[in-house]
Amino acid sequence: MKAVTRARPGRQQRSRATRARIVEAAGRLFVRDGYLATTMAAIAAEAGVAVQSLYLGFGSKLGILSAALDVAIVGDDAPIPLLERNWVRSLVETSDGPRAVRLFVEQVGQIMGRTYPLYAVVQAAAASEAGELLAENKRQRYQGVHAIATYLSGKPGFAAGLTVDQAADLLYALASEDHYGLLVVERGWSTEAWGAWCAHVLSSTLFPPQ
Questions:
Q1: Over the stretch 125-156, which tens digit does the pLDDT of each residue have?
Q2: Are residues 44 and 127 in the same domain?
Q3: Angle 81-82-87 from CA coordinates, rounded to 5°
Q4: How far lies 164's CA from each of 143, 168, 170, 171, 188, in Å?
Q5: Shared-domain flag, residues 55 and 102
Q6: Same domain for 32 and 107?
Q7: Within this chain, do residues 136 and 158 fall inside the same structural domain, yes or no?
């Protein structure tokens, strides 16, 4: 019995490592070849696993793309939701509204750097079943920024007359893949320059100078 107990963590680690290898391999192919042109056989070959393993682990090619996007968003495969990450705790605990906005934008900049190539893949394939993933991504992102807006609204100096929904809309619009794509990817801004400008606009709107 003890031998079985000791072996289980090893199997779990190998399974997690295999899953991470599949997600990484699929991400490379999706970005290079596009969602529609990437086949399950190509992903299996790139990851060094059987095609059946892909279906058993993810269910479908869309499931793999979804997993790759999830890992890119949080930065790892740890089962910790984005809103339970340490940076959110720091944002909640600070009483300095503009600093909280900067914390948010800094994290968004890091997230965009990781996710934008895959997000562009999802956008390009939106006419296929990937459109469901795009809609779900937008829904979850708005849900997340609405929670951030709620935290910000309780800090001193929050703009009088601005509702949480309006604040969430501003975060959703400015700190978005679309906005990042226009300025950083299309117009050549650095992520740092985009982040500084975005933080300035959001801070001055949500916490206007007295």
A1: 999 999 999 999 999 999 999 999 999 999 99
A2: no
A3: 125
A4: 12, 6, 10, 11, 32
A5: no
A6: no
A7: yes
